[in-house]
Each structure stands twice: as C-alpha cells, then as structure tokens.
Design goal:
With 462 residues, the protein is α+β, with helices and mostly antiparallel strands. It folds into two domains: 50-141, Purple acid phosphatase-like, N-terminal (Immunoglobulin-like), CATH 2.60.40; 146-461, Metallo-dependent phosphatases (Purple Acid Phosphatase, chain A, domain 2, 4-Layer Sandwich), CATH 3.60.21. The chain is 22% helix and 28% strand. The chain has helices at residues 2-17, 21-33, 167-175, 198-206, 208-211, 226-235, 272-288, 291-296, 324-327, 337-343, 455-461; strands at 50-56, 63-69, 77-81, 89-92, 94-99, 107-115, 123-129, 138-141, 152-156, 159-160, 181-185, 188-189, 216-219, 247-251, 254-258, 299-303, 348-351, 357-360, 363-364, 367-368, 384-388, 408-412, 416-422, 427-434, 440-448. The strands form six sheets. The chain has a seven-stranded mixed beta sheet, covered by helices on one side. A hairpin with a 2-residue loop joins strand 14 (247-251) and strand 15 (254-258). It comes from Aplysia californica.
C-alpha cells in the first residue's frame, strides 16, 4: 500500500509539474494569432465586454459565459468554434441591469450566455460580442464525458483585489493546462461592494485571464454580505443555482456541493433560507448516495466558506467546540452540518475564511477517526477537512495556537493555494503550494477510500 501511495504521489506530482508540447503549441499559436492581447474593442460607447468569466452549466455539455458592460447593449452573444479563426457558432443570451447598493448607486449590465451541446474533452475558442463591441479571443476545454477520468483542480479562498499574491502563479499554472476547474471558496476582492462596487470591478478584471479560460466555480463568503450579497449574486452564475447561493455539480467521479455558511451568521436577511438550504442539501446528498449514483461518482466533496474546525489564534467561530457550521443550533445540534455530512458519507470538506492553510486528520464530533496509525487517510472513519484561505488579500496572514487540538494534522501561514487530482474512484491526491516559497509543495497527502458511503455503515463493517 505504501508503494502504491508513493507511486501515486510521484505520478500526480508529475502531472502537476509537466505539460504537453501540444499545450505549449496551442498557447503560443493563440498568443501569436491574437496579437498577444486580450483587450476589448470599445469605440467609446461604454459597451465593451469586461469581467469575462466562465462556469460549468447545468449539464456537462454546457458552459456559462458571463460578462458585464457599463452601458446597455441590444445584443449579448458568444461566437465560438474549435478553430480560432473560424468562430462559426453563435449563441445569444440575455442581460440585466445591476445597481450596487452604495451611495452612488452605480449600475452595470450583467450578460449571460449558455453554450449547449458542446463536445466533451474539446478545446473551444470564443469571443463575446454586442452590436458595437467585442472581446479578444479566449479558449476553454470542456470536461470529458462520463466518470472515468481524473479531474484536476486549483482550490483557494480569500483572494483580494489588493495583495492577490497567488494569482500570477495560478495564471501560469492554468496557461500550462494544469487545471480542469478552479474553486474559489468565498471572500472576493475585499470587497466586491467596496467603493460603490469599484473594487469588485477591479477584482473581476484582474481574474479575467484565469476565469475566462478555466471554469471558475464559487461559493459565497462573509465579505460578500453587503446588501444581502447582491454583488455576489449578480456577478457569478453557477449551475442550478438561480441566485440561491447553493448548488451542486458533477465532474468525472466526483459530486461537488457548494453551500453558503453565511445564512447562519446573517439571519437578518431571513431565517427561512437556513432551513431551505439544509433541506436541499439533505436531499442532494441522499440522491448522491443512491447506489446507482454513488457507484458512478463515489467521491462526495463539499465546499463552504467558514470552517467547522480550525486551530487559529483569532477567536473565530471555528476555534469553538460548538461552531455554528459544525453543530447548527448549539446544544440541540439542530441543522448540524457535521452530523449530516457524517450520515451521508461526505469524503472531503473544503473551507477557507482563515488566511492560512490547515489539514485535519479525519474527524467526527471532535474525535480523530484515522484509518490506522500507519495510514491515517486510508479508509478513515470520519470526514477529512482542508482549510485553504491563504491566496492573498489586504488582511494579510493569520496564525495558529501554540498547542493545536489533536485533530489538527498540519498548518501553515504561507500564502498559497491547494491542488487536487482525483486520480480515480478510490484515490485523491492533495498538495499545498506555497507562493512565499516560490511554488514549493509544503504539504501533500493521498486520501484513499476503497469504500464510499455513510460512515456509520462503513464503521460497522470494520
């Protein structure tokens, strides 16, 4: 087993650090043909597309293209195709006005086009257009069909418009073809609404080179709370979301679930959404656990902004044994996400909020549930947690308690981000990149699940 683990780690690391000659040729050809620029044509109309980003659609064969313009346009369209010089397909969408809640009541128009019927595992080039302006050319690659492939993701949270230290390295990784998707685990720009939304505009433009070419999947964080999260709701379109701020999607052998932890902390925006999300989440996880579904997509991975656990020294809620995200209503454990995740056999929970990185031992109800002393992440009896909120923002680093709890396995305050490769239906390789250490891998592990399912059932088999 150790030899298998070492071989997987070496192979996975190689897949992260090497890329094909074909990728190099495609990238160079793209830069040369497009004149080495992704600038938009404006003509002084205020209708030039900006803040372009993509996300997976409701089906694997779909991609959502989102952008904004300062002024209204009569047309929202995407021209796309498999060859850069032959964008022969056209899909039209819609736009709506978004008015920021700040004192200036600044407005912009958010455009959305859903590309449908895309061929799997295929590179498409595209431009977004109005009747008077168009963007430069971008490209994306669709996910392969079925479940028998190995998704590769970059995962991070808490990236600001200022001090986004990890962004250049992420952009370089993406240009090398290292990722199938990106997950941003809440807290954008610091803040999307700041300065009447101008900081949000700056951030969206800064991430465009990354988010316009790699599906940029998100969840909401506490820094998005202004005006009932209106900037987040307007700027990001996620699959099957419809503005609720929670959704799920499938990617190869993985079922991903995105939740809002913020409903619990901002009840002034309504109590019903707390219960509605919990009911939806329970149904979604139960559906994912149906035998025909779990056999196809055995990995269940959740992501939300505020962690259940953390060992930082800042007195955030996750440092408490009774954190709201973990236990729900204190003492009564009503709406407890940890109990629900344990009952439904969630394999991995990803969090951010703390401006640091922390890996937990598999845990449930404050108790370590390692697979064994020698192989803690092989068939564990509890949920594995990763906290990855160190991408870089204006609030800088956060640090840790001198004597962390027994469930804390490793932590670092370095700026950086997390890479994940779901090698197959049983092996998940995770590594942490330190941007402070020039891209050094400062932590890695392989989660091995030879059986997936509710932990009560799995533990009873032992």
């Amino acid at each position: 087993m150790l030899q298998c683990h070492d071989q997987l780690s070496r192979n996975s690391l190689k897949s992260f650090t090497m890329y094909s000659q074909q990728t190099i040729v495609l990238t160079l050809a793209f830069v040369l043909i497009s004149g080495g620029t992704l600038k938009t044509a404006d003509h002084g109309t205020g209708k030039a597309p900006q803040h372009i980003h993509i996300s997976y659609g409701d089906l694997p064969s779909q991609m959502i293209i989102t952008w904004s313009t300062p002024n209204k346009t009569d047309l929202s369209s995407v021209h796309y195709g498999r060859e850069l010089l032959h964008l022969v397909n056209v899909e039209e969408g819609s736009s709506h006005i978004f008015v920021d809640g700040g004192t200036e009541k600044r407005s912009q128009y958010i455009h959305r086009v859903d590309l449908k019927g895309l061929t799997g595992n295929t590179t498409y080039y595209y431009k977004v257009r109005s009747e008077e302006s168009e963007s430069g050319a971008f490209y994306f690659r669709t996910m392969p069909e079925g479940q028998d492939w190995s998704p590769r993701l970059a995962v991070f949270g808490d990236m600001g418009a200022t001090n986004a230290q990890s962004l250049p390295r992420l952009e370089l990784d993406a240009a090398k073809g290292m990722y199938d998707a990106v997950i941003h685990v809440g807290d954008f720009a610091y803040d999307l609404s700041k300065d009447n939304g101008k900081i949000g505009d700056q951030f969206m433009q800064e991430i465009q080179s990354l988010a316009a070419s790699v599906p940029y999947m998100t969840c909401v964080g506490n820094h998005e709370n202004s005006y009932n999260f209106s900037n987040y709701r307007a700027r990001f379109n996620m699959p099957n979301d419809n503005g609720k701020m929670y959704y799920s999607f499938n990617m190869g052998p993985v079922h991903f679930v995105s939740i809002s932890t913020e409903f619990l902390y901002f009840p002034d925006y309504g109590f019903t959404q707390i219960y509605e999300q919990y009911d939806w989440l329970k149904k979604d996880l139960m559906e994912a656990n149906q035998p025909e579904n779990r056999s196809k997509r055995p990995w269940i991975v959740t992501f939300g902004h505020r962690p259940m656990y953390c060992s930082n020294n800042d007195n955030d809620d996750c440092t408490s044994n009774e954190s709201l995200v973990r236990v729900g209503v204190p003492l009564l454990r009503i709406l407890s996400l940890e109990d629900l995740y344990y009952q439904q056999g969630v394999d991995l929970s990803i969090w951010a909020h703390e401006h640091s990185y922390e890996r937990l031992w598999p845990v449930y109800n404050l108790k370590v549930r390692n697979g064994s002393y020698e192989s803690p992440y092989t068939n564990p009896g509890g949920i594995t947690h990763i906290i990855t909120g160190s991408a870089g923002c204006s609030e800088r680093h956060e640090y840790f308690q001198k004597n962390p709890p027994p469930w804390s396995a490793y932590h670092s305050s370095d700026y950086g981000y997390t890479r994940m490769t779901f090698a197959n239906k049983t092996h998940l390789y995770v590594e942490q990149v330190s941007d402070d250490k020039n891209g050094e891998i400062i932590d890695s592990f392989t989660l091995i699940k030879e059986q997936h399912g509710p932990y009560g059932d799995l533990n009873n088999r032992v």
